[in-house]
Target: NAD(P)-dependent dehydrogenase (Short-subunit alcohol dehydrogenase family)
Amino acid sequence: MRHGSRTALVTGGARGIGLEIGRQLADRGLRVLVGARRPEAAEEACRAIGPAAVPLSLDVTSAGSVTEAVREARELTGGIDVLVNNAGVSLDGDLRPPHVDEDILHTTLDTNFTGAWRVAQAVVPGMVEAGYGRVVNVTSSYGSLALMDSGRHPAYRISKTALNALTRMLAAELAGTGVLVNAADPGWTRSGMGGPSAPRGPREGADTPVWLATLPDGDGTTGGLFADRRPLPW
Ligand SMILES: NC(=O)c1ccc[n+]([C@@H]2O[C@H](COP(=O)([O-])OP(=O)(O)OC[C@H]3O[C@@H](n4cnc5c(N)ncnc54)[C@H](OP(=O)(O)O)[C@@H]3O)[C@@H](O)[C@H]2O)c1
Model:
């Protein structure tokens, strides 16, 4: 992979695991578009990452924002080679099914699932045209049906289950195009979402997403769900 010539878009890239993914991609020689809802947060993150980072206003829940961000990204860099769908929210605290707060359900799905779909829809055609792409959906073991043994965080879990399904379908549709699509579980990581007690730091959390974002040419890994670079059951 010619890292020097590649551009990555990281959604929710201004803090937490997303900021660390951007930092590690920049360390590997990629240009990094730091997607963030608040322009000043994107700019601050870019200063922290260094000259390879470029701020991009991006709210994944707004179709207009996604279209505009991808247009701007093309103008700035020529195209997006790597998409890391990292932006996410976890809002449902102690809610358990069948009790549901519909606003929480809709916002969670709109951000974690539809948001990733929206950005993929805008970015993937350019990858197919270029014959190269890496899409990494940052998911969670909470979304694994195989591991779904409680009703904790129901909206969050279902949003990640849906994201996992999108990963499989996109990978199947894009087989043979040069675009590899995988899902990465960062593990319980210290961040705004993970809180201060999580056992791993952002560096570890970012490792599997970055590995999948930089799969070398000739590597056929696609349609998989990974944690710590190892397959996780769907
Ligand atoms: N931390 C964990 O233990 C853990 C475990 C498994 C999976 N994950 C996943 O890892 C990813 C990153 O989480 P994190 O732990 O780094 O959480 P975090 O610190 O809360 O960061 C979440 C990021 O998503 C952004 N975001 C939220 N809504 C957005 C929207 N509508 N448009 C654009 N960006 C938006 C936030 O931006 P603002 O600053 O604008 O809010 C922030 O940059 C998420 O997908 C999460 O589900 C985390």
